[in-house]
């Protein structure tokens, strides 16, 4: 019986053509190339491990900064949604003036877990958000007029219960920040799919993933 032969291949290490001896799976032409290839693979593996370790260290060192960046980018995305649908101030229904705030319905001090939830962020005039004694009343009325009583109740009561504990790790914040920035970059591509700000908020919440695992149908 004649010895089995295989088709010519190109060595993954040196690039020269060779005829496999052992099987069709052979991709290295010689022991010398095999040793060199293995050494390079070890180096790549070690370099990848170091990049991952460095990323973890970076996340830990800058964890406070990433939380702040995350909040700023979420606020920016919330304002972009409002601007796209040409909504006016959620408190008073008037034009914004010089400064537009991404106002929290549930304030950050008492409801930390809703800090990054887009349903909890609606654009308001700076004066209304920061100085008006009627802020809470106006905000509630604005939500009802724009999206209905069930939506306002969801934000006021159900959402706080649904996300009573968030517990994001440093790495999860870092990864969510990247997703928010991607949403901002691709904003115009996505926003055309939605009829109002409520639908857009839910979509971007799911894309970012912080609140996606506990998704509940919106009213």
> What is the count of DSSP helices, taking H or I runs of 4+ residues?
8
Range of strand content? 5-15%
General shape: elongated
Radius of gyration: 27 Å
Uncertain stretches of 5 or more adjacent residues? none
- Please identify the structural class as seen in this structure: mainly alpha
Let me know the largest β-sheet.
Answer: 2 strands, antiparallel
Oligomer: single chain
Characterize the structure shown.
With 219 residues, this protein is mainly α. It folds into 2 domains: 17-59; 63-214, no CATH class. The protein is built from 8 helices and 4 strands. The strands form 2 sheets. The chain has a two-stranded antiparallel sheet. Strands 3-4 form a two-stranded antiparallel sheet. Helix 2 packs parallel to helix 6. The protein is elongated.
In short:
This protein is mostly helical and 219 residues long. It has 8 helices and 4 strands, in the order ββααββαααααα.
What descriptive keywords fit this protein?
219 residues; mainly alpha; 2 domains; two-stranded antiparallel ribbon; 8 helices; 4 strands
Strands, helices and their partners?
Blueprint: E1 9-10, E2 17-18, H1 31-61, H2 63-84, E3 100-104, E4 121-125, H3 126-131, H4 135-147, H5 149-162, H6 170-185, H7 187-191, H8 197-208
Antiparallel strand pairs: 1-2, 3-4
Helix pairs in contact: 2-6, 4-5
């Amino acid at each position: 019986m004649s010895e089995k032969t295989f088709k010519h291949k190109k060595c993954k290490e040196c690039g020269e053509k060779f005829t496999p001896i052992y099987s069709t799976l052979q991709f290295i032409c010689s022991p010398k190339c095999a040793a060199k290839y293995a050494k390079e693979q070890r180096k790549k593996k070690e370099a990848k491990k170091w990049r991952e370790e460095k990323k973890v260290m970076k996340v830990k060192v800058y964890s406070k900064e990433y939380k702040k960046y995350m909040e700023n980018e979420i606020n920016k995305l919330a304002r972009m949604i409002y601007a796209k649908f040409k909504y006016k101030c959620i408190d008073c229904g008037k034009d914004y003036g010089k400064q537009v705030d991404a106002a929290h319905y549930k304030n950050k001090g008492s409801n930390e877990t809703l800090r990054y939830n887009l349903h909890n962020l609606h654009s308001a005039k700076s004066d209304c958000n920061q100085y008006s004694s009627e802020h809470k009343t106006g905000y509630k009325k604005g939500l009802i007029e724009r999206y209905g009583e069930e939506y306002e109740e969801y934000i006021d009561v159900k959402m706080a219960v649904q996300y009573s504990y968030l517990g994001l790790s440093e790495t999860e914040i870092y990864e969510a920040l990247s997703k928010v920035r991607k949403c901002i970059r691709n904003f115009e591509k996505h926003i055309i799919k939605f009829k109002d700000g409520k639908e857009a908020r839910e979509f971007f919440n799911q894309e970012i993933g912080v609140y996606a695992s506990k998704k509940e149908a919106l009213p």
